[in-house]
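Hey,

Quick one before I head out. I ran the complex with cobalamin overnight. Inputs first:
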Amino acid sequence: MDALINALLVGNGADSIAHSQRLLHAGVSVERIVIEGIEEAMTSLDEKCTVSQFNLLEIMLVGRSVTDVMNYLYPGGSLPAGSKDTVVLATMEGDIHDLGKNILKTVLMGKGYRVVDCGKDCPLQKLVDVSEKESPLAVGISGLVTSIIPLVKQVRGSLRARGLEQVKVMAGGAALKQSSAERLHVDYLAETAFDGANYLDRISGGAIP
Ligand code: B12
């Protein structure tokens, strides 16, 4: 796993894929590779992404290697036949981080959900409009900067105001998971993408009203 983390951190996509392949062959699950490899690598990038110290090229190369590994772990990434419910995903306006959202998207599609991705820097109005059109089981919000928290708090109320009270709201991402579902006014706060997928499985099966 350390070799994978190192390859990701130097932005070497080919080596990152080779190490992921080795881990898979050694019986390590995709879930562990994502959480203990990719997520861990990005966390250790932390000090390179502060306001005082910032190397965009370096971070973007790491991001590209993450995408390479996700494409390898989930080949095709396309919508499987007989898909489950729809989920609408977004990173809210003012937040341009989307690696976590894209990982969640891949994981959900891999589990058979139909995913409608509103992208990053998404205005609240757009999220509500898309939700009205798509009738999703849930809306998933990914948040990496704390400045978007006031916007996240408005999502459930805005959906309700549009008559979409049955749509569950789940949140995740580094800036949001330090908070709580109550404080963010969401139905569920996920630790990882897999955690979010399991929550959806529970609500789509009717385990949570
Ligand atoms: C990579 C990165 C960038 C990249 C983003 C590339 C991209 N396409 O996403 C770039 C270089 C563009 C960038 C820019 C900036 N960044 Co930046 N960035 C990061 C960094 C290093 C990693 C983030 C990341 O991708 N993590 C990996 C992913 C996989 O983790 P994750 O999102 O948490 O996702 C996992 C789970 O949380 C879950 N998940 C995520 N979302 C959701 C949603 C749901 C519904 C569910 C169920 C699950 C789920 O799934 C994933 C897998 O399990 C973080 C540091 C950190 N520790 O987070 C800083 C960080 C987020 N950035 C920060 C800052 C300050 C910035 C900038 C303002 C810097 C600047 N000087 O301009 C800018 C612009 C920000 C803006 N307006 O949006 C700060 C935010 C501080 C704060 N608390 O507000 C951080 C924390 C760094 C720091 N220590 O200061 N950044």
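Residues 56-73 form the longest helix (18 residues).

Talk tomorrow,
K.
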